[in-house]
Amino acid sequence: MDPILVYDTTLRDGTQGENINFSAEEKIKIARWLDDLGIDYIEGGWPGSNPRDVQFFELAREVKFTHARLTSFGATRKPGIRPQEDANLQALLDSGTPTVAIFGKSWDLHVEKIMDNTLEENLDMVKDSVEYLKAAGREVVYDAEHFFDGYKTNPEYAIDTLAAALGGGADFLVLCDTNGGTLPFEIESIFEDVKHRLDKVYQDSPGKPAVKLGIHTHNDCGMALANTVSGVRCGAVMVQGTINGYGERCGNADLTAVIPVLSAKMNVACIPAENLAKLKTVSRVVSETANIVPLNSRPFVGKSAFAHKGGIHVNAVMKIPEAYEHMDPELVGNSRRVLVSDMSGKSNIEYKAKELGVTLGGNGFDSRQIVSKIKDLEQDGYQFDVAEGSFKILTQKLTQQFKPLFDLESFRVTIEKDRDQPCTAHATVKISVDGNKEITAAEGYGPVSALDNALRKALDRFYPDLDTMRLVDFKVRVIDGRVGTAAKVRVLIESRDQEKLWSTIGVSEDIIEASWQALADSFQYKLAYEAEMRKNQ
Q: Average pLDDT over the chain, rounded to whole?
């Protein structure tokens, strides 16, 4: 099978997703990453619709893309005017991109009922617009919007719209499942019929190049990936999608899944093979730029994509990884993770301890002891599969390897509410380091913030390099709400510095004590890591 061209529309279609918005500068940043990944086409936006996209294309003039062709997006001309009079088409040319993509209506319902247009005029709009852009020297990608829905109700007219785009000289015809309601077997049958009918269009035109089809799918039925694969199997030479599947409603085809399925599963060339290992990084860059929490269960690049929890699974993976992994996670820049929980066996503990640098006894006693303790603690509400920092400290304690970098003497937290003013929190912390005591006080936006600030101040005397450490997430979960305010709570804290991200946990009937447990573990983990780094230098 010939190589497949990958067309990314994260910066246009992806931004139509709920809560997703990129500045022009952020779009430039993402475009650079996409180019480095080896994406063939980067759709930067719709310059005729908003000032931000105009600014993006102005900034993009100064960027030298080494692989991708930057593409601007727009619509066919409006009814009743010539292409050169259409501001949208002019904006596409003014963007300066070598490739332009325009969409036109394939569904007679949209033409007659939504646009209040005639079927004949719509065909002229498609052909005239493509001809105009081709005459200006642009490569043209024609997106046949709502094509599959249009084909189902009026296949002859849907094909006529494609023929109009071909008549205008379109380089690619992209069949779009805009509503996301088409199923894979429908994609295949319609694709085959489209190819058959378009071949007839060119029977009397010898020497014409083969029609180049593309596929653009949405995920409203959870079928975007499957429909994209079906399109490729039926002859599509271009796949369109977005990083992380971002897009309107349920999103677009997720290129972080499309690309490895094509490359690793179907042995179809798309991006350069050596760039597959960049997929997870690009996924995280886009999600962080969008300020969207990464989906752990996302195939291939998600944190949980190659995570193993059951003891039997882990035992097998330690012997032969493919026993429970469909591919090598490193191919897509991911890594194997072994989770520790009440479902764990000795294999989980031994694998995880080795990964975290904790030495266990060779007779297996340590791992059995740790498994037993974890099962007891998880019965009490702990959850170590999401708190690797606390798990490492626990294993060190159970094997007498833990050396605390500070000890708590006491802490006190007070909350003050003054009439209509917001609550203020004050914390006093007393710690000792190698017998040296330090007591400090601090304010915060809440009790945990105040404790965090006070602990930092106390530790600063002994460990002045903690300014790079930040608390980035804080979660509280009531474990058993049936006992009301006497219920235990689970507190999860996620922290990071310039190099690492780690999670810690605390459980108690008192939310402040649970928070302190997680907070203290987080600082102990950070300080131990820094000490180990200095030791190895």
A: 91
